[in-house]
Amino acid sequence: MSGYEQRKKKKPVGMLVLTGIVSIGLYVALLANQDLLNTNFAKGGMFAFLPIITAFIFSFVHGTFTGHFWTVLGVEASKKKKEVK
Amino acid sequence: MHDIAQAASNFINLDAANLIYLFLVGFVGGLVSGFIGSGGAFVLTPGMMSMGVPGLVAVASNMCHKFPKALVGAMKRAKYGQVDVKLGIILGISAEAGVLYGAHIQENIKKSFGDAGSNLYVSVAFVVILAVVGIFVLRDAWKTYKSGNMHEEEKITRLAKWVQSVNIPGTMVYFKSLNARISVLFTIPLGFATGMLAATIAVGGFVGVPSMIYVLGAPSLMASATELVIAFVMGLGGSFKYAMHGLVDIRLAMVILGGSLFGIQLGAIGTTYVKPFMIKVVMGLIMVIVLFSRGLMVPVYLSQLGLIETLGEGTVKALKTTSFAIMIFALALGAFIVLRAMWQGRRAERLQQAGEALSHGEI
């Protein structure tokens, strides 16, 4: 398969849109409920799990979205050197 | 509990300008982190403080954006075969101990000498460590560039050869990045130093990455990728510790994360296009420039402690502004080099592919 054919492979536009919507939803929820979050997330003790879990959720959803974002824009890793050594 | 209530009440109001600023600095910091394994925190923490965020909340919120960012970056670079998870976790655990010890030292200095003493300690640590390590890394990158051996596989140092040759029964572990068995008695102090530096100047990678390259013998690309695993382990533990005291402002952390996840993906992709010595170039340059930035602040803290003549208000303000501007410049320059190297690498690859397609067509 030539380099041109490889580049023609299907881009994950559907996943980009889906994760984009969920990611935007998460950020809207975050900014729309600032008082609620500030009060509960700053309680300390076992409430410490709240910011940690939130960070994991955002990293999963937004991380997937940003990964697809660059792929759809055509910014992908070099095909020559995928591995070190 | 009083501290917790006070911390919550100190969470600032976020306006659109603040959100955009955090997002953009997050993006640039993420881009550099994706490439060299660390960076961004030295601008983000003072940047948040300049918005009115209390120091500890800024440190805690920065840390809470760091661990999910490092996780995404490490997973991305693992796809390119650049991550040594075992080395990252082993170094990360000892780094966590270093963070706790470093924070303890900080607290004691603050108790004995106040804020100015603590700031002076941080600045002197910055200047001394960055001067030694930064100049060494930059010199090594320059030597590689001058020798014209940029494409060749990196040679390991004599120190790393010795470390890899030492056999201490019961402590030997095989690491794929080194393709050798080394004693964890060498990795423990290195991880500890990385953690101590992370607790002091917020960028443990400035010791972690060079020590993996020059002391353990890891290739630059693998060292910078493995640093992301260390940052994840350290950041997760540190964030939980701060969150237990209610100091994490989740809004700040997630907005920075919003920008930095765009950046870290791009920085990670960038590593597949560049020659390994570029990791050293970017890291060394940032370290040396930041060194000047922090060096400018030393007279301010010396004056606050009464060790030198009192500086005028205008002088202090000018030094602070210049110091912060130099830090932003360091980060921006790092990002520029990463993007430029990536652009050139992509262009060369496309030209090569087009040439190949053309020659196949002719046949």
The overall strand count of chain A is 0
How many β-strand runs of chain B? 2
- What is the element string of chain A, with H for helices and E for strands? HHHH
Q: Mind summarizing the main beta sheet of chain B?
A: 2 strands, antiparallel
| Overall helicity of chain B | over 70%
What is the arithmetic mean of pLDDT of chain A?
87
Measured as a percent range, the helix fraction of chain A is: 55-70%
Domain module tally of chain B: 1
SS-based structural class of chain B?
Answer: mainly alpha
Which class do the helix and strand fractions of chain A yield?
mainly alpha
Low-confidence stretches of chain A at least 5 residues in length (pLDDT < 50)?
A: none
Distance, first to last CA of chain A? 25 Å
Shape of chain B: globular
Characterize the biggest β-sheet of chain A: none
From N to C, what is the helix and strand string of chain B? HHHHHHEEHHHHHH
User: Measured on Cα atoms, how large is the radius of gyration of chain B?
Assistant: 21 Å
Assembly state here? Answer: heterodimer
Helical stretch count of chain B?
12
Report the portion of residues of chain A in β strands: under 5%
Low-confidence stretches of chain B: none
Give the SSE map:
The complex is a heterodimer of chains A (about 80) and B (about 375).
Chain A: H1 3-7, H2 13-32, H3 34-41, H4 49-72
Helix pairs in contact in A: 2-4
Chain B: H1 2-9, H2 16-36, H3 41-50, H4 55-79, H5 85-147, H6 158-165, E1 172-175, E2 180-183, H7 184-201, H8 205-216, H9 220-244, H10 250-270, H11 277-304, H12 313-362
Antiparallel strand pairs in B: 1-2
